[in-house]
Amino acid sequence: MNQTPLLPVPEDWNTALAVVAHPDDLEYGGATAVARWTSQGKTVTYLMVTRGEAGLDAIAPDVAGPLREEEQRQSARVVGVERVEFLAHPDGLIEYGVPLRRDIAGAIRQYRPDVVITGNYHPTWSDGRLNSADHRAVGPAVLDAVQDAGNRWVFPEQLQTGLQPWSGVHWILVASPPAPTHAVDVTPYIDLGVASLEKHRIYLENLGHDFDPRGFLTSQSASIGKRFGCAYAVAFEVYDLRGALGTVAVTD
């Protein structure tokens, strides 16, 4: 892991849209930071690209999908998130491409966030483990959709439904990257982060191995906290877009 000093995550914003592949993706660290931000009065909305229906080997997708949706809603409420949307792309088979970019850009135009949060989309995690195909597809689509949302000539059909261009995304925050650039102190919120992950009870019970949510989150957050100078912290890769999206070209 890159051991350069971590900068504070910018917090002079009011609204965020978090876009990830599956129910539970945010809860392995990102949701703990969300608990901090909602406690500050910020509004965070969750957008799941899938329903997580292919994530439980012992439970058929038509049963698992609704279960995982409900677990995600309960988990989100723990950290102060009331709105959770699902795009229902096929779990395990997400494809980067125009349809995915269109869906995410539409959500950005609808919610008009200051910040967009997504998950690690790099080939590996910080410990070298391979990342999943779904995560690697969603992240780049999020980056591109942020730009798409500000260009009225990209997906212009959305304008006819009242979704106007939005170039107001100031930052993109990528949670749990292998080489983070920023962090946020979550020491007072670690218990909420653990409780949020524990709401994915059915998913965790069907992993096929023992998993300790508290042990995982506290260990991970303590490691980042040591670098950041606090007890517990969550790391992000941050893209600063202030001013960059207001000049999106309308021609290729």
Helix/strand layout:
Layout: E1 7-8, E2 15-20, H1 30-39, E3 43-48, H2 61-78, E4 84-86, H3 98-111, E5 115-119, H4 133-149, E6 171-175, E7 182-185, H5 190-198, H6 201-205, H7 213-228, E8 233-240
Parallel strand pairs: 1-7, 2-3, 2-5, 3-4, 5-6
Antiparallel strand pairs: 6-8, 7-8
Helix pairs in contact: 1-5, 2-5, 3-4, 5-7
If you had to describe this structure to a student in words, what would you say it looks like?
The protein is α/β, with parallel strands linked by helices and 252 residues long. The protein has one domain: 3-Layer(aba) Sandwich (Rossmann fold), CATH 3.40.50. The protein has seven helices and eight strands, in the order E-E-H-E-H-E-H-E-H-E-E-H-H-H-E. Mean pLDDT is 93; it is low at 245-252.
Number of domains: 1
CATH superfamily: LmbE-like
- Give helix % range: 25-40%
The low-confidence runs, each spanning 5 or more residues with pLDDT under 50, are 245-252
Q: Quaternary state, please?
A: single chain
* CATH class membership: Alpha Beta
| CATH fold-type name | Rossmann fold
Order of helices and strands: EEHEHEHEHEEHHHE
Strand content range: 15-25%
Provide key terms for this protein:
disordered C terminus; 252 residues; 8-stranded mixed beta sheet; alpha/beta; 8 strands
Offer a quick outline of the entry.
This protein is an alpha/beta fold.
